[in-house]
């Protein structure tokens, strides 16, 4: 009988649980808890997590290692090649509908493709890709996205508040998201955003909190209204024009898109910090020639991707093995959970010379593609189908901010071009001085 994967000692398991898993769970895997995010920044939890996982890789070599958990087998991935194996192997032998993920996401998207079984996923995934233009460079609504972003940017700089904070940025960002996803009629529908916040806050507790069927019904009712009377220049309009086969559960896919935009906002705000610390890059973003690049905003897009590489918003990527699988260190039984700790691979100094640097060129020159453990939108058959839409919105927003405003980091300044990028960065502590740029 082949050997099973190496199992960590009790002491090593405790070290991983306390130094790697606990900080992620405490920050909130579905919606961030601001106070804990700030504490994680102060403690530099990402740096400690990377050190712990690096020590394990040095001791055990390639191949996942099993934690000594009382309730189920969980394997932590330590080798970049194994990241590619896991993500390329979805939905079989590694299902994205991981047990922990299903328990959490069912609170607000019980019919979402991410937690669908193999049969339902085969119906829902192609429809998601079609609506979201997954395989395109720009979403079909690109021109409308450009217009929405330009209109809403006016709200970033009230005359009495020249300092941009996270709390000031988020209302503007969500107005953009609601208009793009649900239509102009949803611009001021803060209630639907608050409803998603409440449901996601429950999801942070997974099986420890019962589902709120009342809130779920209310969310479904509101989404149904926007799709039934769809703004043609919105994703809801695309949904209305793209009927699925029975079992697609079209309305049931929309909560995941709204959920994904929360991480997109965090990434955009951190990307703004990257540009303030790298003035030459900011100047280049301002000069990007849209006709030449067919609307792509290449450096703005690469800056958002660098934000996601340096400070992943998906803290861990989860898969469950649906059958026995074989690795360099041994075998894993069916039902084994696998965890990919994103920051460990995105900031892997032993393999990435630029791990702690702002290096947007990697997204254009092939280095990111070769480094297959760089997965800001996951990878493989279960890669985020909203990648095109998210990058379209976020790159336009980032470019729009620096084009319309002079932006400088306000104390406490965390990003400087001559320093290595911090391993942990609390987005809610970033502040920027804004001043409107002269026309022309």
From TrEMBL:
Pfam families: p450. InterPro entries: Cyt_P450, Cyt_P450_sf, Cytochrome_P450_monoxygenase. It comes from the Bacteria. Belongs to the cytochrome P450 family. This is Cytochrome P450. It comes from Georgenia halophila. The lineage of its organism: Bacteria, Bacillati, Actinomycetota, Actinomycetes, Micrococcales.
């Amino acid at each position: 009988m082949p050997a099973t994967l190496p199992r960590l000692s009790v002491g090593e398991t405790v070290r991983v649980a306390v130094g790697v898993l606990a900080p992620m769970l405490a920050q909130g895997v579905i919606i961030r808890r601001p106070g804990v995010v700030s504490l994680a920044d102060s403690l530099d939890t990402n740096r400690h997590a990377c050190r712990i996982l690096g020590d394990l890789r040095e001791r055990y070599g390639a191949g996942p290692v099993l934690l000594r958990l009382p309730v189920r087998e969980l394997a932590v991935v330590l080798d970049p090649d194994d990241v590619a194996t896991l993500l390329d192997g979805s939905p079989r032998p590694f299902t994205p509908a991981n047990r922990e993920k299903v328990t959490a996401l069912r609170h607000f998207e019980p019919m979402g493709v991410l937690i669908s079984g193999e049969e339902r996923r085969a119906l829902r995934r192609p429809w998601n890709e079609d609506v979201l233009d997954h395989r395109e460079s720009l979403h079909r609504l690109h021109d409308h996205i450009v217009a929405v972003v330009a209109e809403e940017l006016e709200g970033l700089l009230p005359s009495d508040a020249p300092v941009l904070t996270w709390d000031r940025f988020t209302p503007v960002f969500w107005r953009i998201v609601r208009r793009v996803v649900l239509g102009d009629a949803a611009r001021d529908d803060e209630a639907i955003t608050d409803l998603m916040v409440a449901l996601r806050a429950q999801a942070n507790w997974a099986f420890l909190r019962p589902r709120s069927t009342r809130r779920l019904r209310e969310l479904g009712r509101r989404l149904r209204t926007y799709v039934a009377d769809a703004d043609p220049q919105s994703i809801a309009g695309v949904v209305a024009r793209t009927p699925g086969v029975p079992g697609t559960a079209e309305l049931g896919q929309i909560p995941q898109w709204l959920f994904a935009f929360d991480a997109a906002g965090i990434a955009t705000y951190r990307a703004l910090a990257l540009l303030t610390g790298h003035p030459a890059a900011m100047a280049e973003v301002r000069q990007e020639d849209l006709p030449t690049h067919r609307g792509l905003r290449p450096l703005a897009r690469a800056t958002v991707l660098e934000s996601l590489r340096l400070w992943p918003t998906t803290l861990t990527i989860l898969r469950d093995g649906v059958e026995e699988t074989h690795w360099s260190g041994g075998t894993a039984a069916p039902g084994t959970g696998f965890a990919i700790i994103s920051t460990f691979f995105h900031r892997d100094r032993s393999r990435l010379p630029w791990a702690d640097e702002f290096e947007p060129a990697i997204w254009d020159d092939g280095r990111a593609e070769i480094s297959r453990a760089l997965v800001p939108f996951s990878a493989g058959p279960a890669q985020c189908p909203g990648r095109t839409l998210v990058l379209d919105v976020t790159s336009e927003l980032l470019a729009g901010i620096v084009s319309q405003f002079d932006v400088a980091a306000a104390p406490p300044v965390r990003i400087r071009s001559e320093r290595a990028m911090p391993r942990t960065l609390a987005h809610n502590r970033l502040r920027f001085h804004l001043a409107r740029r002269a026309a022309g």
